[in-house]
Design goal:
- The chain has 8 helices and 11 strands.
- With 296 residues, the chain is α+β, with helices and mostly antiparallel strands.
- Helix content is 26%, strand content 24%.
- The strands form 2 sheets. The chain has a 9-stranded antiparallel β-sheet with strand order 8-4-3-2-1-6-7-5-9.
- The two termini are 27 Å apart.
- About 4% of the residues have low confidence.
- The chain binds a DNA duplex (16 and 16 nucleotides) through helix 6.
Length: 296
DNA sequence: CCTTGAACCTGGGCGC
DNA sequence: TGCGCCCAGGTTCAAG
């Protein structure tokens, strides 16, 4: 379930462990995830020191001290966990029970930090995730980054920008906001949530939020604010849940939110005084949750 | 160019 | 402790 806030939470959870750690060895347990792993992946990163963890949209960036960056995308089901790799560790040792889905541990980062030995493990049952190795100074040339829209929390996202992108477009808002070239990092959940918060229907044609002169209507200004708030709130919730979120097994999965509409079909709308019921529809193959009563 | 739909892959939940 | 069906938060590619 990694949209931008989840990836940011993962980044914050991993940073204290990974930053300034030495990547002694990278272990790949299969040659590919969604795409082939980089050629000679282990050979090219082993022995490097991790100098920082970054994020662009839903991509996690692991910066190495030789100018290379590991670009990791969690797909739909990817997660990281941290394990202490102490001297007592024995495979199958009952003191160290193996997780049930160990078979989906695909990439293991064997780290040392001071006198500590750690492993950061990438697990991904569906294997929609992927990893690439890229020169950091050329990161903008990474194909998926080249056409990426602005970050929803950044200064480049404003109503004027969205007006320019929405103008004369007949595509429904739902699809438009999922387009990573329009805004980078929104996914199915937070698009539903932002539309609910701004009182706009996911079926609304994007162009109808723009005046003939190409200026943003008040509705588009409200949507812009809602997007920023939804993402900021989710990041704050992830950050505040981080301590609880890192379980004793070190897993960094996804925190629970209380969503306003997402996955709440047939439940009452949470807007004060609305009284509507959340409904679900399918738009371009994806579930959309919204309230017919208050989203117009 | 714009828009939609299918494909990639595995697992969980549900009804029978 | 089965079996089939539907569903899942993302991205890319092809075709209309």
């Amino acid at each position: 379930m990694p949209e931008l806030p989840e990836v940011e939470t993962v980044r914050r959870g991993l940073a204290p462990t990974m930053e300034q750690a030495r990547l002694e060895r990278l272990e790949t347990r299969r040659p590919d995830l969604r795409f082939p792993l980089p050629d000679q992946f282990s050979e090219r990163v082993s022995g490097r020191t991790i100098i920082g963890l970054g994020r662009r949209a839903k991509y996690l960036l692991i910066d190495l001290d030789d100018g290379m960056t590991i670009i990791a995308h969690l797909g739909m089901s990817g997660s990281f966990r941290i394990e202490e790799a102490g001297p007592a560790e024995i495979p199958g040792d009952f003191h160290h029970p193996r997780s049930k889905d160990e078979k989906h541990d695909h990439v293991l980062f064997h780290l040392t930090k001071g006198d500590r030995s750690l492993r950061v493990i990438y697990n991904d049952p569906r294997r929609f995730g992927f990893m690439h190795l890229w020169t950091r100074s050329d990161l903008d040339l990474y194909p998926a980054f080249a056409g990426l829209g602005p970050e929803p929390t950044g200064n480049l996202l404003d109503a004027e920008y969205l007006a320019a992108r929405f103008r004369d477009r007949i595509q429904p808002l739902k699809g438009m906001l999922l387009d990573q070239t329009v805004i980078a990092g929104l996914g199915n959940i937070y698009v539903c949530e932002a539309l609910w918060r701004s009182g706009l229907s996911p079926k609304r044609k994007a162009g109808t939020l723009v005046t003939k002169a190409g200026k943003p209507k008040p509705e588009l200004m409200a949507l812009t604010v809602a997007i920023r708030e939804v993402i900021a709130d989710a990041i704050a919730a992830g950050g505040s849940s981080l301590r609880d979120h890192i379980q004793t097994d070190g897993s960094l999965g996804y925190f629970q939110h209380s969503f306003s509409v997402y996955d709440r079909e047939t439940e009452p709308c949470r807007r004060e005084g609305c009284g509507g019921i959340v409904s679900r529809l399918v738009q371009s193959g994806r579930s959309t949750f919204f309230c017919e009563t208050c989203q117009k």
